[in-house]
Design goal:
The chain is α/β, with parallel strands linked by helices and 338 residues long. The chain has 11 helices and 14 strands. It is globular, with a radius of gyration of 20 Å.
Length: 338
């Protein structure tokens, strides 16, 4: 079975409910704007590119529900509702804003069909971007490489073969003998539940480790390189990614192994000058408490940020669909975008 986290067929939007993985592979229907927003917020669909694609389809679903009552103002409201679900990943807001930009001057009667066309283009664009990221990234992976990744930035997180995992898939496809070490990625376990399952599904050798084991493996030279995704890249090359990424980058720098970030161009936000300006999502305490079966009435004080910031000077290169940007900085990213 081919893995497709997002299916849009016959005007119906279906997604794999990723909260059920790895124990159950199940598609669910998203039939209205509220169900799309809930799916994004509750991590039934996650990964920066994937939630951008899902939000785009969410705009179409909202438009269809409005039917003859559709207006640009109503679509702006739908877009605001979608953008409020998860503020850190820029792909979501980019998708919504791209749709609003293209329909602003249209008559109401033509908006619905135009949104549907844009949605298909956004989905296809990400599919092709993932493929190119894989091709560029594969060139950085040596034979018999031991690769560490964090969170899930593969097929389940995108409209194609992934961002961070795209080079892994291409390396395996070209016959390289590789092994992937998968951080469990607490507290929600995207590595343990999703990345390991996804790699194993495709018969790629992989080993699950706890998050606090990674630095030790790096120190023992059991890791050759690290590849992660990104939810937003600032103009200077700083990145926001799943909490725990920064620590891996520090360990990689100290032990002199490459630390790569893989992302489509839509993840680059030139309006944000540096990482400290990126909004960081703070999630519910229950995500941590439930992992340990701690009851809420025990009144634990919990700080649960979903992302951290990795400065650009800790990043060896950013792998994009266009090229590999070594030692990323504002000038190099500006040249890439232009």
């Amino acid at each position: 079975m081919k893995l497709e986290p997002i299916k849009f067929e016959n005007d119906e939007l279906k997604i794999i409910d990723q909260t059920l993985l790895p124990n159950e592979l199940k598609y669910i229907n998203l039939t209205d704007l509220d169900s799309v927003c809930d799916a994004i917020r509750s991590l039934k669909i996650r990964g920066a590119p994937a939630i951008g694609i899902t939000a785009a389809y969410g705009m179409y679903i909202a438009a269809k529900k409005l039917d003859t009552k559709i207006s640009y103002e109503q679509m702006v409201k739908a877009g605001q509702k979608l953008k409020s679900t998860r503020p850190t990943a820029v792909n979501l807001s980019w998708s919504v804003d791209e749709i609003l930009r293209q329909i602003k001057s249209l008559k109401s009667a033509t908006m619905i069909d135009r949104i549907k066309t844009i949605d298909g283009s956004i989905h296809e664009q990400d599919y092709n971007a993932c493929k190119k990221i894989g091709e560029h990234g594969n060139q950085l992976i040596p034979e018999r490489a031991k690769i560490l990744t964090h969170c899930n930035a593969g097929i389940l997180a995108t409209g194609g073969i992934g961002t961070a995992l795209a080079p892994v898939y291409k390396a395996y496809e070209t016959g390289k003998k590789i092994e992937v070490f998968v951080d469990e990625t607490r507290p929600v376990g995207q590595g343990a539940r999703l990345t390991y399952w996804e790699l194993n599904y495709h018969h790629i050798p992989c080993t699950l480790i706890t998050d606090n084991m990674a630095a030790s493996l790096i120190a023992k030279k059991d890791i050759d390189l690290i590849i992660v995704g990104a939810d937003r890249i600032a103009a200077n090359g700083d990145i926001a990614n799943k909490i725990g990424t920064y620590g891996l980058a520090v360990a990689a720098k100290y032990h002199k192994i490459p630390f790569y970030v893989a992302a489509p161009l839509t993840t680059i936000d030139m309006s944000i000058q540096s990482g400290d300006k990126i909004p960081i999502e703070i999630r519910d305490a229950q995500e941590i408490l439930s992992f340990w079966n701690i009851r809420q009435n025990l009144n634990y004080k919990v700080y649960n940020t979903a992302f951290d910031i990795t400065p650009h000077n800790l990043i060896t290169a950013i792998i994009t669909p266009v090229s590999v940007i070594n030692n990323p900085n504002k000038k190099r990213l500006q040249n890439l975008i232009n």
